[in-house]
Amino acid sequence: MLSDQNQKPIVLEVEGLRVYYETPAGDVLAVNGIDFQLYQGETLGLVGESGCGKSTAAMGVLQLVVPPGRIVSGQVLLDGQNLLDLSARELRKLRWAKLSLIPQGAMNSLNPTMKINRQIQDVIDAHLGATSKQEIRDRILELLQMVGLPERVYHMYPHQLSGGMKQRVCIAMAIALSPQVIIADESTSALDVVVQRVVAQTLLRVKEALGVSMIMIGHDMGLMAQMVDRIAVMYAGKIVEIAFVKEIFDHPAHPYSQLLIESVPSLKEHKPLKVTEGITHDPRHPPPGCIFQLRCPLVMDQCRQQEPVAQEVRPGQWVACHVYQSSEAGQ
Amino acid sequence: MLLEICNATKIYGPRGGEGEVIALQDFNLQIRKSPASITAIAGESGSGKTTLANAILGFTRLTSGEVIYDGQDISRATRAQIKDYRRNVQAVFQDPFGVYNPFYRVQHVFNQVIRNFGLNRNRAEWQQMIEEALNAVGLRGQDVLRKYPHQLSGGQRQRIMMARAYMIEPRLIVADEPVSMVDASLRASILDVMLRLKEENGISFLYITHDLSTAYQVGDQIHVLYQGSVAERGPTFSVIDQPRHPYVQLLVDSVPVPDPDVKWEGEVVLPAEEEMRSSAISGCRFYPRCPQRLDQCLQQQPPLYQVDDADHQAACYLLST
Known about the structure:
CATH architecture of chain B: 3-Layer(aba) Sandwich
Oligomer: heterodimer
Shape of chain B: globular
CATH topology of chain B: Rossmann fold
Number of helices of chain A: 10
Distance between the termini of chain B: 32 Å
Number of strands of chain B: 12
Strand order of the largest sheet of chain A: 6-7-8-3-9-10-12-11
CATH superfamily of chain B: P-loop containing nucleotide triphosphate hydrolases
Radius of gyration of chain A: 21 Å
CATH class of chain A: Alpha Beta
CATH topology of chain A: Rossmann fold
Number of domains of chain A: 1
Largest sheet of chain A: 8 strands, mixed
Helix content of chain B: 25-40%
Number of domains of chain B: 1
Strand order of the largest sheet of chain B: 6-7-8-3-9-10-12-11
Order of helices and strands of chain B: EEEHEEHEHHHHEHEHEEHHHEE
Number of helices of chain B: 11
CATH architecture of chain A: 3-Layer(aba) Sandwich
């Protein structure tokens, strides 16, 4: 899926990444060969239903896959350096500094026994080594201010903060060392609507100010529309479509993307509910051919035999579906 | 009236003391016997919506106020009346994983209900009833009854819960966040079941949710709660298309629009936490966050004022003139 998005430099490139989970009954193919590029300053949304492998893909990129999971094959190139070749020590140096994560349920990832300033300081200390106390203090206060938190948060414990505030502390930690790439995994999903908006807008503002690239994982299409530049749609461990956000919303190409867009509830129109049946295959034994064949309304014979290859149907819009291929192949 | 809630108030913690939390305050609601309807209760976490569901289902006692079913106050009902109530008012809960006993097959869920309510006549009729209930939610017995809960998707599990409730032929189903833990692409199937049970079987719903968009899709009436009090209520279209309470306006405005061309306008500033949790203040609960607050708002909680549409009301002094 190569495309040069306005000639912007590529920051992160993922090629043929496969992450499997070992189970007694065989491997679960959680991420089964995905390719994508992340451009400088861009926000890429990674969407799909639960279990489609989007969080596992993020863990694969961060090299944080833990047993029973394992990275089977692939490349993750950050600045031309393949993360799979690095030692644990080299990776540790790189995390937070070049590549940081705002985890799922970030509010529960803070240490309840440490004050906020200590937690942020830990991140800075571990990477920059000895820095003067005053410098660190100033840096932490600057970070808090960037994410819209008052100074008093500096001396507070996590339990004294609301969910939205803790979420913003996690954003502050993620940007503490000015990384090139931030991965935000469902970073606003457990928040109330108004708070979610505040956190999302904070994230956007900080991202703009620092010019970092971001991968945003989630399933809320409304939030995606508000926040991302491009969207990669995942289904059962594969990226079935990747395109600019506007293309995905205006003319989704893959039948699964179409279904995803049609099922988005809206406050603007009262459209009939789109009901879809959710038969999924056993993730250990995907059927031959297209992975979406069991749910696809447009399924053809070819889909049961041959796996579709991604191709560009509009500028920047790549789709892996036989519907678009058969027309050309037949000629 | 099928169900009437009068001045329902629930206070947790010591009365008048430091830890007093008013979870629900002077809440009123009426659901007609016919036609069947879907009443949405919307609000953020801590707005009192689950307290309301628990009070209706009898899991918690109200501090004051009444829940009246078919003319009978349920806190003063006889055993027989309670049994009748429990049969006619069914519940579907948020977590489609937690409500199943993982050791039993799906069939067990239905058998239990049939035994509890003495619905069985003979085996064949028994199976027939289960099959009909499953068909009503778009499932087939042969596909699900022999399965264990972990073999089903969240959407299927939640629809089985709807089937279980439906089989008893209730008049009201209290659905507490039934779709919030189900994938977006499968949510529609559950909402669709609710609409069909309403239309075809005359079952009313109390749909409790934090998600305004799904409330908009299925709700006939909506009550928007803020920290235990109703901020605004009325026909769903009227309330969401033209919200009059500043809180509901902020809420509607903050729902991310699934259209990349329509972005959020302006930034929202949240006041400090301690201001927001001021449960003891006597005035409007939304005062600390309200962009249009008046001095008057601090003195007394605003009553519900009529908005143009007769059934549409909002608790805000801005509407008093």
